[in-house]
Design goal:
single chain, alpha/beta, Aspartate Aminotransferase, domain 1, Aspartate Aminotransferase, domain 2, 4-stranded mixed sheet, 14 helices, 15 strands, globular, binds ligand PLZ
Length: 454
């Protein structure tokens, strides 16, 4: 009998120490077989996952606050996804859309055209990974504008391929030793409310001021007429769940419009209901020219997309976009089922409700514990930035320690941030509220037991 599926109890349960004996045996085999350059956050090996829990090979059941890095938003092995995938696998697994097209690809394109912001004519192209979607957005913007410059931001994460490594801000571990990188990629300062402070006149650097600062850098160092696209995460993911100050994104968008620059929202991590809106740009009423999607859109199957204005999407030469697996039929079937799950289970509202619960819990923690410097996020994409009390000095060791100790107690928490000092919370949107509350009880215990306030 398989362990997983809808019957898998949504509980936290520890039967062995973590990692248990079976995970330790697998770790030994892994060391001899898997490149040491591939890391894993968790020390245990998965046997099953459903809803908001992961069960390991020793039978321990963990509350999952990471969702495989914002992927299983509809829940791990969501029933509609499992059913649609099973059905599609029995029909055909692959034909290659570039060889023999099929309807699920067209249906996913129609769905993405409908759910992304903007009520103009749109087109979509499908790929496999988030990095591929970002690369293709750049290709499309270049073909459309006839320009080559790409503008990205401090703390950005866009992937690990050669072009997207150039676009990603953080060197270690993503870029170390992997250069040379693609050229004509330029970095501008982001709006980072917790760290922005004041300008030389003592005025707070709010959203519009941060946008003006970024635009000045681009105009001085690149020149607007050389820029094909500006690529920005509406809520930064790996960079630390940074929510730009209100007004930053609208001012940036307005500037791109004035200069014929393609505005690309990288919604790979923030998109698909995660923040309580289908896309995070909706919180500020932003309508990007192109949106990149991946992760949550297919309930755990590898699928990504670029969606946007028809005249931009149709600019590359015929045959210029594609790939063997892009828009794989099994992944497309999963995406249609994931979207049905979001709609039929009211997951946008669930994301908002889980976000409210997490915000309350994290703000209470911040009031008790001065090492919590900032609580931020949108919807079910929340984070805390940990610092030395009373300062902005990042405390990455504390973040690592809290994540490790939470794991020992049956709660999976991921870290992120340029300084490695951010704990991020991305539960499945279907997670039962009592289970989420239990995870935060555990976190409270861990914080109370680690250092300064203990
Ligand atoms: N754009 C905004 O968050 C992937 C990567 C983790 P891929 N983030 C998790 C890691 O260490 O590799 C991401 C993202 C944003 C693009 C990507 C890239 O998506 O599917 O990992 O290629």
């Amino acid at each position: 009998m398989p362990l997983g599926g809808p019957g898998l109890p949504q509980v936290r349960r520890l039967l062995t120490e973590v990692p248990g004996p079976r995970s330790r045996a697998l770790a030994a085999r892994r060391r001899a077989a898997v490149s040491a350059a591939v890391g894993s956050s968790m020390p245990f090996y998965a046997a099953a996952a459903a809803g908001g829990v992961v069960v390991d090979v020793d039978g321990n059941s963990f509350i999952d606050l990471g969702s495989g890095i914002a992927v299983t938003s509809v829940g791990a092995s969501a029933p509609r996804v499992v059913e649609a995938v099973t059905e599609q696998v029995s029909q055909f697994t692959h034909t290659c859309f570039m060889v023999t097209p099929y309807d699920a690809y067209v249906a996913v394109a129609e769905a993405l055209n409908e759910i992304t912001p903007g009520d103009f004519e749109k087109r979509t192209a499908l790929f496999t990974s988030g990095a591929e979607a970002v690369e293709n957005a750049v290709k499309i913007a270049r073909a459309h504008t006839g320009r080559t410059g790409v503008v990205v931001f401090d703390h950005a994460y866009h992937g690990r391929t050669n072009l997207t490594m150039a676009m990603t801000a953080k060197n270690m571990p993503y870029k170390e030793g992997f250069g040379p990188f693609a050229t004509d990629v330029h970095r501008a300062p982001l709006s980072y409310p917790f760290r922005d402070g004041v300008d030389l006149e003592g005025n707070p650097i709010d959203g519009p001021a941060a946008a003006a600062r970024a635009i000045a850098v681009i105009e001085k160092q690149v020149g607007a007429s050389n820029v094909a696209c500006v690529v920005v995460e509406p809520v930064q993911g790996e960079g630390g769940f940074i929510v730009p100050a209100e007004g930053f994104l609208p001012a940036l968008l307005e500037w791109t419009r004035a200069h014929g620059i393609v505005f690309v929202a990288d919604e790979v991590q923030s998109g698909f209901a995660r923040t309580g809106a289908m896309f995070a740009c909706e919180h500020e009423g932003i309508v990007p020219d192109l949106v990149t999607t991946a992760k949550g859109i297919a309930g755990g199957l590898p699928l990504s997309g670029v969606t946007g204005r028809a005249e931009i999407m149709d600019a590359p030469v015929v045959g210029g976009l594609g790939g063997t697996y892009g828009g794989n039929p099994v992944a497309c079937a999963a995406a249609l089922a994931a979207l049905a799950t979001v709609r039929e289970e009211g997951l946008l509202e669930r994301a908002t409700a889980l976000g409210a619960l997490m915000t309350t819990r994290l703000q209470a923690l911040a009031r008790r514990d001065p090492r919590v410097g900032d609580v931020r996020g949108r919807g079910a994409m929340m984070a805390v930035e940990l610092v030395e009390p009373g300062t902005h000095v990042p405390d990455a060791a504390l973040a690592a320690r809290v994540a490790r100790e939470a794991t020992q107690r049956g709660v999976m928490v991921l870290t992120c941030g340029t300084y490695g000092n951010v704990l991020r919370f991305l539960p499945a949107l279907a997670m039962p509220e009592p289970l989420l509350a239990e995870a935060f009880d555990v976190l409270d215990e861990v914080f109370a037991g680690t250092g300064a306030t203990a």
